[in-house]
Amino acid sequence: MLDIRPVVHLIGLLGLALGVLMLVPAAVDWQAGNANWHAFARTSFVVCMIGGLAALTTRNGLDAGLGRRQSFLLTASLWAVLPALGAVPFALGAPNANLTNAYFEAMSGMTTTGTTVFVGLDDLPPGVLIWRSMLQWLGGLGIVIVALVFLPVLRVGGMQHFQAEAFDTMGKVLPRVYDISAGLLQVYFGLTFAAIAAYMAFGMSGFDAVNHAMTTIATGGFSTSDQSFVKFTGPLEYVSVLFMVLAGLPFIRFIQLLGGSWAAVWKDVQVRAFLRWIGYSVGAVIAYRLMTSDAHVLDVLRGTLFNVVTLFTGTGYGSDDVAAWGDFPLLVVILVGFIGACTASTGCSLKIFRYLVLFEAIRAQMQRLRRPNEVVALRLGGKRLQPDVISSVIVMFTVFVASFILLAVSLSLTGLELRTAITAAWTAICNVGPVFGQEVGETGAVDGFPVAAKWLMIFGMYLGRLEILAVLVLLLPRFWRG
Amino acid sequence: MLDIRPVVHLIGLLGLALGVLMLVPAAVDWQAGNANWHAFARTSFVVCMIGGLAALTTRNGLDAGLGRRQSFLLTASLWAVLPALGAVPFALGAPNANLTNAYFEAMSGMTTTGTTVFVGLDDLPPGVLIWRSMLQWLGGLGIVIVALVFLPVLRVGGMQHFQAEAFDTMGKVLPRVYDISAGLLQVYFGLTFAAIAAYMAFGMSGFDAVNHAMTTIATGGFSTSDQSFVKFTGPLEYVSVLFMVLAGLPFIRFIQLLGGSWAAVWKDVQVRAFLRWIGYSVGAVIAYRLMTSDAHVLDVLRGTLFNVVTLFTGTGYGSDDVAAWGDFPLLVVILVGFIGACTASTGCSLKIFRYLVLFEAIRAQMQRLRRPNEVVALRLGGKRLQPDVISSVIVMFTVFVASFILLAVSLSLTGLELRTAITAAWTAICNVGPVFGQEVGETGAVDGFPVAAKWLMIFGMYLGRLEILAVLVLLLPRFWRG
Ligand SMILES: [K+]
Ligand SMILES: [K+]
């Protein structure tokens, strides 16, 4: 049997931390003279108690370190349990959501998806808004740690290509977390504060700036307004693009930047491909819109840049109705949503790196078609691609596409119209945010979806954020055997 | 430089054969007292001349056999040149089509796609109808030879897994063609005659039976009526299902059957998976329709069986409006269209075999996630899967999906509505037949599509039928170098 004590211990500790952090929205609501602070304070107390107790009763659990299977179980449990805890204040206080909606919103937060079931955001207590943003910010931080530390050792989806040189045994997973945490926190806080300052400098209120900075750096996309970024069109869109792109870069490079190594960022093949592909997709949509609409050129440039980048990086803000631009722009944004950002960023979806591996595999295959006996070495960023990396990446693609299709079919069975079902599956699996279709509310909220559709989306967001395989492996009966 | 004489020689010979075969529709129209026989007779004369001349001037071309690159060039040229020759009668006589439409129809025929740009089929001269059916029948026969002989040696898309034991050098490609031709022709004619007899026994006229038998065995889907199979609802649908499924089985097994080996058919893992998946998809749609409509149970069973099987096998007849059944059935048929039938059948799309390889790769990967150091052997049908087969299959999937997406995007740029563009790309790349969407005519014909969309579909059908990579390899500059 699998020893689950280390897992319970770590979840307990992180639950405790989440409970403590609930004091932030409590303080905000209290400060605003809003009675809603009770909901956060009470939940905080209970969550701290439960988390603390779980940690205490398993306090020696970590003595043996964290094994391979325990790491899988930890990752999968964290993104199921923490959103449940984070959802409680939504149910107890404003907006007085039912359990499905509260869990949906918290899951959409922690997975940095950004689809919302809340309508009337502008009138919600500030504590609720900041809590939504904090859930995304924490989810983004968490996923970077998972991608930097766990996925490479667990060999999920080709991430073993990024296994750091000095570190390749399971025994060192936890020490490694502590190692990178200092640098990562510096980077993450630094980017967030820079974003707050920039948003404020270009005219956002302090409160809006803090919220949007957190959801930008997490490529999360929650906003403080039903209209998302429509309120902030203009220079703020350029500011946002800058920080969304930064949030989509590999965070390990920022950590190296702290050590003074600029070259690491610019020489990263992922970074180059990411920027190039953004250029292509933005350029294609701009060309299309200039030919098909008579909007002002500068408006087209800015609007296209912002809305394509926000969907490319998987952030999901909106400052315009992309679906109204035409079918071609809609197809483009859906495609780039399937790409996502760089590995170990807060971005989601399949990621640039996997596409580069795939292209390299295709190139080699074409070469072999021509001359079957030629030996072709596959490389990426100057490092040899191991066969295991290639097959992992490819399995990831398959499982990703299959999950998307299954989810779309299941959503259509709940009664959603085809376009709605397909874009809802896309937004969930790729953690993007917006859904396009007739059942989507005027504010972009999906509160009107059937309950079954919401749960399917919850499951999709969860699967997508954890790179699917890290969850599916738990479903193997073999996983649980000794 | 590549010596193209053997390629020209073989194309010349096959063009000559096509010219001779044009005497069949000429005779049919002459017999029917229809002046349209002129179009076929004149074309026949010219095509025979050109084909004969090409063959004569290169008559020593085959002395050195057929090399690897020549085989690629031959396959790719055949499916571009023969449809061009076959299109001439459509342009010269009835239905007096323009060049785009004539080539579209002939390409849709030779690739066994079955999408039509002709309206008023019921009133066309019988020679034109039989010529359309013959193009599909010939295209089906041709593709089985390509799949049995060329693709395995050329190592396209994992087909090397089916390389016959006694035969693995390029030098024996042509002898191999002659070897299997006798058996294959017996099987192909046998199935066709059986289908003619069965269709007539259940009430089709001799002419309808011959046409539909040819397009059934080719999984082509051209009909003699604008209403496709609506005229033949009832027992004929069951007859058709039987022969469509037979046409989707691996023809090599039928050849073995001639030698008395029944076990070969039933033990083939592809065959079992094919039948099982047909069962699942038909069952799912029947369940959905029974719950959502109040049509008579037997009508639901028969209509669903027929329409799902016709799209699964890539035949593409229609006896009912599948899109009107709901979004779920539509999604199911689109998905099964992406599967297709068994290798070396007349069926198209990605094929059962590739999915089985993919599932096997996923299974192995999941096992490695759990225990990274375990050695996992991949097998299919009792035969070890070579790494090269797996990576070829996977590249095929990628290229297939990428082509579909690119084609859908390009089609949407020609102004087609999203659903039309997507299903047109699907029908072209998977060689299925029907297109769903508002721009499709009442009879299912796509004559109203923009010219650019038609050419994109022509290219898509061509790519899809030749397993894409067999064409793309010609685009490598390296291919043409010594
Ligand atoms: K997002
Ligand atoms: K077809």
TrEMBL record, chains A, B:
Bilayer topology:
Multi-pass membrane protein
Origin species: Roseinatronobacter bogoriensis subsp. barguzinensis
Q: What does this protein do?
A: Low-affinity potassium transport system. Interacts with Trk system potassium uptake protein TrkA.
The molecular function terms of the Gene Ontology recorded here are: metal ion binding; potassium:chloride symporter activity
Q: Which domain of life is it from?
A: Bacteria
Protein's name according to its UniProt entry: Trk system potassium uptake protein
Transmembrane intervals: 7-28, 40-59, 71-92, 134-156, 177-202, 238-266, 273-291, 328-353, 389-409, 455-476
Query: Known PANTHER family for this protein?
Result: TRK SYSTEM POTASSIUM UPTAKE PROTEIN, TRK SYSTEM POTASSIUM UPTAKE PROTEIN TRKG-RELATED
Give the family this protein belongs to, as stated in its UniProt record.
Belongs to the TrkH potassium transport family.
Q: Name one Pfam family in it.
A: TrkH
Where does it mainly reside? membrane
Fetch the InterPro entries from UniProt.
Cat_transpt, TrkH
Q: Which GO terms describe its cellular component?
A: plasma membrane
Which positions bind K(+)? T112, T113, G220, T315, N431, V432
Subcellular location as annotated: Cell inner membrane; Cell membrane
Which keywords does this Swiss-Prot/TrEMBL entry list? Cell inner membrane, Cell membrane, Ion transport, Membrane, Metal-binding, Potassium, Potassium transport, Transmembrane, Transmembrane helix, Transport
